[in-house]
Amino acid sequence: MSNPIQRHVLSALVQNVPGVLAHISGMLASRGFNIDSLAVGETEDTRLSRMTFVVVGDDRVLEQVRKQLEKIVTVVRVIDVSAQDHVERDLLLVRVKCSQGGTRAELRELADIFRGKIVDVGPEELMIEMSGRENKVQAFIERIRPYGITELVRTGRIAMVRSDCLSAEKSDSKAQPSRATV
């Protein structure tokens, strides 16, 4: 029986040094792994950054990506976020055509329904900010598409394991020493 193709969210804690992103993305590309989404940012410790990847594939692909990441010296830890109870979000900024009056009110109502926020108002356009799960963001895009999207920007996925899962993971990891110290 074959493993189904699915989306995996991986989180890599890496040393915050120049070239890490290029090294990791180059390694994944050279081995034929496609990154569906990528977000990188500093953590609570300025010496570390968190890279959140979404890769598509079966369990074998996930295991290969994980093994390759763990071989890189600047990678401190890799976890499969999607295998645990977690929260994930995308951020969207979208500029939509609108005229005065009815269209503007309709777009404001749609933004409210999706818990979005109008962050810029121009004479012929509105800019709306919204965050949420990927399917919510995609549904919002489809609802406003008929109005005329003039520009759209999305972040890569960000995700964190829920607190109750972390305490169980930390007690498991106490038995195993960390690979790298920072």
From TrEMBL:
Record-listed E.C. numbers: 2.2.1.6
Give one Pfam hit by family name: ACT_AHAS_ss
Q: Note the SUPFAM superfamilies from the entry.
A: ACT-like
All copies of the ACT domain together span 9-84
One annotated Gene Ontology cellular component of this protein: cytosol
Q: Which residues cross the membrane?
A: none
Q: What class of enzyme is it?
A: transferase
Q: Which reaction does it catalyse?
A: 2 pyruvate + H(+) = (2S)-2-acetolactate + CO2
Gene Ontology process terms (BP)? isoleucine biosynthetic process; L-valine biosynthetic process
Q: Which UniProt keywords apply?
A: Amino-acid biosynthesis, Branched-chain amino acid biosynthesis, Transferase
What's a single GO MF annotation on this record? Answer: acetolactate synthase regulator activity
Q: Pathway, according to UniProt?
A: Amino-acid biosynthesis; L-isoleucine biosynthesis; L-isoleucine from 2-oxobutanoate: step 1/4; Amino-acid biosynthesis; L-valine biosynthesis; L-valine from pyruvate: step 1/4
Summarize subunit and interaction data from the UniProt record for this chain.
Dimer of large and small chains.
Q: What does this protein do?
A: Catalyzes the conversion of 2 pyruvate molecules into acetolactate in the first common step of the biosynthetic pathway of the branched-amino acids such as leucine, isoleucine, and valine.
Tell me the protein family, please: Belongs to the acetolactate synthase small subunit family.
Q: Return the protein name.
A: Acetolactate synthase small subunit
User: What species was this sequence derived from?
Assistant: Stieleria varia
